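Subject: Sanity check before I submit

Could someone independently write out the structure tokens for this chain? I want to compare against mine line by line before I put it in a report. The sequence has 554 residues.
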Amino acid sequence: MSEDKGYLPIKIPGGEMGFAAAYSEQKISEYADNPLIEALPPILSAEEAIDRILYYPSYQDIERELSAELRLHCVGRLMRFIEPLEKHLNIEGKISRCIRDGYIARNPLGMEYKIKLKQTKQAIVSGKDITEMQWELRSTASGFAILGISGIGKSTAVERILSLYPQIIVHSEYKGNPLSFYQLPYIKIDCPSDGSRKEIPLHFFQKVDELLGTDYERKSKGESTERMRNRMVQIANLHSLGVLVIDEIQHLGVKGVGFEKVLNFLVTLVNSIGVPVILIGTPKATSILRSAFRQARRGAGIGDVSWNRMEQDDEFDWIIETMWNYQWTKTKTELTNELREALYEESQGIVDIAVKLYMLAQIEVIGKGKEVITPDTFRKVAKKDLQLVQKYIDALKRGNPDEIALLDDIQSIDIKEIIDTKARTQRDREKIRAYKKEIEKKNQKISEDVLVTITTNLINLFIPANVAEKTARQAISELGPDVPVQDLMKRAGELFSGAEPAKKKKSAAKKRSKKEVEEGKLQSLILQATEEKKSTYNKFQENGLIKPPMAEFF
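---
Independent answer below. Compare away.
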């Protein structure tokens, strides 16, 4: 919302936050002395519009040093990235003129406003179809359509521009005179996916109820389509609706019947009631809009907007270069021509998909090795994560307009779910990694303790320290640190004596020389002394291998 007016927030009972009307003097004569127009934010210059529309997410280079799990969440900021294009400025200007033009003939201070309220109330009471009524007053409103392939950024652009206006303006007094009502500068609803005629009024009632805490939806239950439309017109007049935006208008032709009546009703809103209507849709809606709704825009001087995919030109490169600054990988990947070409090839100039591809590429490499983005990274994530839109992208690559026009809408890509899934995987991976490190650390401590024990025992057997440590390490390496000390000592003795492991002694015994047998006997006595906690000297003496010194003397 515009910051220039200094709107004072007011909570609507049961509804959303509104803003107290702040009136500004108008330099254009037809806008003067009209509280609906004077309460709007100022008309923006091109520079001001760019500044208000663009959205660059927060970013600090130091964030690249955060954990992989945290950096995955940082990548999600790119979902709100908006780089204003010429199209944005064009649409901003059209919406600004639409709203103001529609308010010229609906000045609440004039008799015309009261007459229209009276006529719509009579239509509701009498049950007349409002599209067939003859209106006494001339409308100053106009409407236009925005058509372009799915996912091109139409809805995001319009929503961003509408957000520059307060959605609820609370009037209480104008130039010292009481003037109490709620003004709704805009309402945006989606056309139902099944093209139902009743759903547009229902969606409208739901939105107004959400904003103002009213119960229009409840009151409309059980009413015919005609009565619901009449009530919709009354509400639009009562709350001084500035513009009605209907998105996904291509759904209107799904059932193949009835859309003419809906369009005639929208024409009535524009031409008779004076509420501008903006329709947003894909090329599928072209045939629908060639019919009745064109009459609502004839002679308006505003014109429709055709929003096609971007060419691989300086404008596309500018967006990619700006977006590329938001990189949360450990290794900063520089933008090359090869990366630009791969990104354009897989997005086909659809900015929304290009941004999501860049996000997916970062999500793919974070937590893996050096975390470098390559052209193959874009191809990999396009194939893996953009399956829902691949048919559309392939059609764009072939460049057949008839084929493109017949395709269904691009399915939305749930980037948040992909980020959450990757974050969970990364979190689990880090837990496993930490657990492994803990186990390794624990095992290392155990191994070191066992090594000291075995080495000390060997040294006590008069084995040189360096040989004892080497022998102990080899025994632990073969059997592991968690086997009993006796088994490790036994294997260490075998290694020191050059003997084979115990299980092989029997088969090798026949081939041992007398000297080897004697050495084996000595080794066995050494091991027995260790187990019995006796000195080797005493054990040798008990087995007659060492005579007492005095006995030898005598």
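---
OP: Matches mine. For the report I'm noting this point. Strands lie at 8-11, 17-20, 144-148, 169-174, 177-183, 187-190, 244-247, 277-281, 305-307.
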